[in-house]
C-alpha cells in the first residue's frame, strides 16, 4: 500500500510514502484523513493522508516507509468534508487537520471562561420533572418531521422557528435520544462557550443517565478531550456540545446536527480563517447525508431565504411553553421632555417603581459596558484615544480608561494631552452599564442592583453568585449587556427595559437592522416566561420602522420587507459578499497594497469575464488594532466560485501586506 500525504508543517507539495503491511488494515477501512508520522530528511513530522493506492507511484526518488500511524476514527467522509470546507475558505485542508491536532494537545483555558456553568431551570423544565417532557402539538409536528430524516439517514435542513420560551430544547432532546437509539452521534452547536457549558449542565441533568455527553471547546480539560477521542475511536454514539471545534472532529457515525440560536453572529469566528460554524455545519450535514436543525426565535434572513429557494423545511412553534408574551411599549427619548434622568424615561421609571413595590424583578439591557463611551476635552475637542488601536478609550467607574480592543489601559489624566486644559474641562459622553447602575442607585436607593457584562462575568465565582441571587429573588434589578439576552430563564422577571435601542442601527453593515431586531426580540423574550402580565419598554433616540416589529409574532413580516430591500440592492442572501482583509504594521504600505490589489482584481475580472463587483478599498471604522493597520476590499457576486477564482488567481507574493480571505460576510 502506498499513501500520499500533506505535511502539517505548511509544506504545500504532497509526498509519497509506503505503508507498513502490518498496520495498514488495523487502523481503518480507508486511511484517507488519518494522521501519520513520516520521515522528512533527518526528522519525523506529522502529516495527513490524502490518497492511497496499491500501485507504486511513478516517482524518481526512493519511497520511504512511514514511521507510524496515529489512531484515527474511521470517518470515511472526513477528508471530502475538509476539502470542501478548505476550498470555501481558500485554505489547504491540512491546515484544518493541524488545527484539530493542535487543540487536542493544547491545555484548557477553563480559568478564562467568563460565565458560570450554573444550571437554572427553563420554562420547559418548570412544567415537568420528567427527563424528557411531553411535547405540545406544535412540538410534536416538528419532531415527527425531523425524526423521519434521522431514521432515514438523509440530508434535510430544517429551520425550527420557535418564539422565545416555546420549548425548542425539548424537541432537540427527543431528537438526540432517537439518534442515540440508532447508534448515531449528535453534534449540538451553540454560539458561545459559556452557553455550551450551561447546556451541558442542563442536558446532563434532564436527560437519561446512560446518554454520554461530551464538551468540545476551549474550556475542556485534557482528560475530557482524551475521553471523547477514545469514544470517537471506538465509534460509540455520543452527544458532542461546542461552538466551532466539534465540526473539525472526525465522527464515523454522525447522525444529526443541531445549531441552536442559528442567527447568532457568535458562530462567525473573529480570527483567521474566519470559519462560520453554521455554514460549516450545513456543509458537513450535506456531505455526510444527515439532517440538520437550525433553531431560533429570530431565524436569519439567509435561512428563511433557503426555505423559499433551496428546499429547506420550516417548522414553527408560535406559542410559549409557559407564561405569555409581554406588552411592548416604545418610548422616543427625543420627544419626551420630562423625565427623571436623561437615560431613564418616565415610563420606565414608573414601571421599575411598580416592580419594586410588587417584589418582582426587572432586567435593563444596554449593549455598552463601562461608565462613559469616551472622554473629550471641551476646550480643544480632543478625545482620549488608545495608543495601539484607532478607538476612543472607554471610561470605567474606577476612573481608569480601557481599550476594548486590546489590553491597553491608563488612569484618567489630570490634564488634556493636547491643550493642557484641566480635568474639569473633560466631557464624559455616552453611557455604559456602570453608569446605568449608578443612576439607578440614585433613583431607587432601596433597590438591590447587580451588573452583568464582560467586566463582571470574568470572575466565574462572582458571576455565579449574581445569577444565584437574582434567581432566588435576592436582587431586584439586573443591568447587563448581551450576556443576559439568551440562555437564562428568570421566573420573577416581569419587566425588561432596553436603553438606547437604536444604538447599533447606525453601524456600517448591510444587516444592521436585522441583527438589531434579533437582539431586541431576544432581550424582550426574557420577560413573562412564567406570568401572564409582563412589560417591555424600549427606549430609542429615533423613530425607526424596525421598532414596529419587536412583537416577535411580527418578525416574519419584517423579514419579508427586508428581503425586498436586500434584493433591490444586491446583498445577501441574493448575492454572495466576501471580504479581503489587508494587514500591515506600516499604514503607507497597506494603503499602497490595497489600491494595487484592487487594480489587480479588476484586471483579472476583465480577463476572465467574471461578473464580480469590487468595492473598495476602504478604511474600516476601526482601522488599527494592536498597532496593525487594516484595509478592506469587498467582492460581491451571485456565485462564490467567481469570487474564489479571482482571489486564488491573485499573486499574493507581490504584496507586503497580509491578505486574509473572509467568505460569506454576515
Which strand order spans the largest sheet, edge to edge or round the barrel? 8-9-7-10-11-6-12
Average residue-wise pLDDT:
89
* Rg: 27 Å
Class inferred from helices and paired strands: alpha/beta
The major pleated sheet works out as: 7 strands, parallel
Proportion of β residues? Answer: 15-25%
Helix percentage: 25-40%
E-strand count: 28
Shape: globular
Q: Give the termini distance in whole angstroms.
A: 45 Å
Give the helix tally. Answer: 17
Low-pLDDT regions? 24-28, 109-130
What's this entry about, in short?
With 666 residues, this protein is α/β, with parallel strands linked by helices. Helix 4 packs parallel to helix 5 (168-181).
Walkthrough of the structure:
This protein is an alpha/beta fold. 31% of the residues lie in helices and 21% in strands. It contains 17 helices and 28 strands. The strands form six sheets. The chain has a seven-stranded parallel β-sheet, sandwiched between helices. Helix 1 packs across helix 2 (93-105) and helix 4 runs parallel beside helix 5 (168-181). The two termini are 45 Å apart.
Topology:
Layout: E1 2-7, E2 15-18, E3 35-40, E4 43-53, E5 68-69, H1 78-88, H2 93-105, H3 123-127, H4 137-152, E6 157-162, H5 168-181, E7 185-189, H6 193-206, E8 213-215, H7 222-233, E9 239-242, E10 254-260, H8 277-288, E11 292-296, H9 301-309, E12 313-317, E13 327-332, H10 346-358, E14 361-365, E15 374-377, E16 394-395, E17 400-402, E18 409-411, E19 426-429, H11 433-443, E20 449-452, H12 454-457, H13 460-472, E21 477-480, E22 493-498, H14 512-524, E23 535-540, H15 555-569, E24 576-584, H16 587-608, E25 613-618, E26 624-625, E27 628-637, H17 640-649, E28 658-662
Helix pairs in contact: 1-2, 1-8, 4-5
Amino acid at each position: 500500500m502506498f499513501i500520499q500525504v500533506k505535511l502539517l508543517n505548511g509544506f504545500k507539495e504532497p509526498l509519497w510514502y509506503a505503508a507498513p503491511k502490518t498496520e495498514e488494515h488495523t487502523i481503518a477501512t480507508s486511511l484517507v484523513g488519518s494522521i501519520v508520522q513520516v520521515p522528512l530528511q533527518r526528522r519525523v513530522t506529522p502529516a495527513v493522508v490524502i490518497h492511497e493506492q496499491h500501485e507504486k507511484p511513478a516517482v524518481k526518488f526512493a519511497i520511504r516507509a512511514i514511521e507510524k500511524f496515529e489512531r484515527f476514527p474511521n470517518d470515511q467522509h472526513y477528508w471530502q468534508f475538509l476539502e470542501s470546507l478548505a476550498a470555501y475558505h481558500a485554505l489547504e485542508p491540512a491546515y484544518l487537520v493541524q488545527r484539530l491536532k493542535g487543540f487536542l494537545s493544547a491545555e484548557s483555558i477553563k480559568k478564562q471562561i467568563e460565565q458560570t456553568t450554573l444550571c437554572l431551570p427553563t420554562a420547559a423544565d418548570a412544567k415537568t420533572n420528567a427527563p424528557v417532557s411531553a411535547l405540545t402539538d406544535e412540538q410534536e409536528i416538528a419532531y415527527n418531521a425531523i425524526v423521519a430524516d434521522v431514521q432515514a439517514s438523509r440530508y434535510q435542513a430544517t429551520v425550527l422557528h420557535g418564539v422565545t420560551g416555546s420549548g425548542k430544547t425539548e424537541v432537540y432532546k427527543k431528537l438526540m435520544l432517537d439518534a442515540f437509539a440508532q447508534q448515531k452521534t449528535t453534534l449540538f452547536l451553540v454560539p458561545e462557550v459559556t452557553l455550551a457549558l450551561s447546556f451541558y449542565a442542563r442536558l446532563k441533568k434532564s436527560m437519561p443517565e446512560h446518554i454520554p455527553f461530551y464538551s468540545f471547546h476551549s474550556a475542556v480539560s485534557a482528560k475530557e478531550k482524551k475521553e471523547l477521542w477514545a469514544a470517537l475511536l471506538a465509534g460509540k454514539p455520543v452527544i458532542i456540545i461546542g461552538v466551532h471545534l466539534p465540526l473539525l472532529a472526525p465522527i464515523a457515525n454522525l447522525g444529526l446536527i443541531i445549531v441552536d440560536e442559528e442567527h447568532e453572529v457568535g458562530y462567525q469566528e473573529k480570527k483567521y480563517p474566519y470559519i462560520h460554524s453554521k455554514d460549516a455545519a450545513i456543509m458537513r450535514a450535506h456531505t455526510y447525508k444527515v439532517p440538520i436543525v437550525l433553531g431560533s426565535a429570530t431565524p436569519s434572513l439567509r435561512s428563511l431565504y433557503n426555505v423559499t429557494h433551496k428546499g429547506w423545511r420550516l417548522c414553527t412553534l408560535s406559542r410559549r411553553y409557559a407564561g405569555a408574551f409581554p406588552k411592548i411599549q416604545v418610548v422616543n427619548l427625543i420627544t419626551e421632555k420630562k423625565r427623571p434622568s436623561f437615560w431613564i424615561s418616565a415610563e420606565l421609571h414608573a414601571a421599575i417603581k411598580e416592580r419594586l413595590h410588587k417584589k418582582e424583578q426587572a432586567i435593563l439591557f444596554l449593549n455598552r459596558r463601562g461608565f462613559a463611551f469616551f472622554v473629550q476635552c471641551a476646550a480643544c475637542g480632543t478625545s482620549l484615544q488608545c495608543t495601539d488601536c484607532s478607538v476612543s478609550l472607554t471610561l470605567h467607574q474606577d476612573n481608569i480608561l480601557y481599550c476594548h480592543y486590546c489590553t491597553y489601559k491608563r488612569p484618567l489624566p489630570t490634564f488634556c494631552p493636547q491643550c493642557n486644559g484641566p480635568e474639569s474641562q473633560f466631557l464624559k459622553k455616552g453611557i455604559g452599564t456602570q453608569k446605568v447602575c449608578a443612576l439607578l442607585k440614585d433613583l431607587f436607593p432601596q433597590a438591590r442592583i447587580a451588573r452583568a457584562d464582560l467586566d463582571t462575568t470574568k470572575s466565574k465565582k462572582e458571576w455565579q453568585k449574581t445569577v444565584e441571587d437574582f434567581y432566588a429573588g435576592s436582587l431586584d434589578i439586573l443591568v447587563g449587556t448581551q450576556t443576559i439576552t439568551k440562555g437564562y430563564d428568570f421566573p420573577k422577571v416581569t419587566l425588561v427595559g432596553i436603553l438606547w435601542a437604536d444604538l447599533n442601527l447606525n453601524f456600517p453593515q448591510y444587516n444592521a437592522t436585522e441583527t438589531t431586531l434579533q437582539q431586541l426580540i431576544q432581550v424582550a423574550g426574557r420577560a413573562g416566561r412564567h406570568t401572564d402580565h409582563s412589560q417591555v419598554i424600549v427606549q430609542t433616540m429615533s423613530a425607526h420602522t424596525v421598532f414596529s416589529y419587536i412583537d416577535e409574532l411580527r418578525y416574519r413580516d419584517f423579514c419579508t420587507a427586508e428581503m425586498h430591500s436586500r434584493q433591490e440592492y444586491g446583498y445577501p442572501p441574493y448575492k454572495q459578499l466576501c471580504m479581503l482583509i489587508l494587514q500591515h504594521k506600516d499604514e503607507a504600505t497597506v494603503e499602497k497594497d490595497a489600491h494595487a490589489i484592487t487594480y489587480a482584481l479588476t484586471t483579472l475580472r476583465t480577463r476572465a469575464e467574471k461578473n464580480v463587483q469590487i468595492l473598495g478599498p476602504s478604511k474600516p471604522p476601526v482601522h488599527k488594532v494592536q498597532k496593525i493597520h487594516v484595509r478592506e476590499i469587498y467582492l460581491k457576486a451571485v456565485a462564490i466560485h467567481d469570487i474564489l477564482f479571482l482571489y486564488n488567481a491573485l499573486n499574493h507574493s507581490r504584496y507586503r501586506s497580509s491578505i486574509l480571505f473572509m467568505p460569506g460576510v454576515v
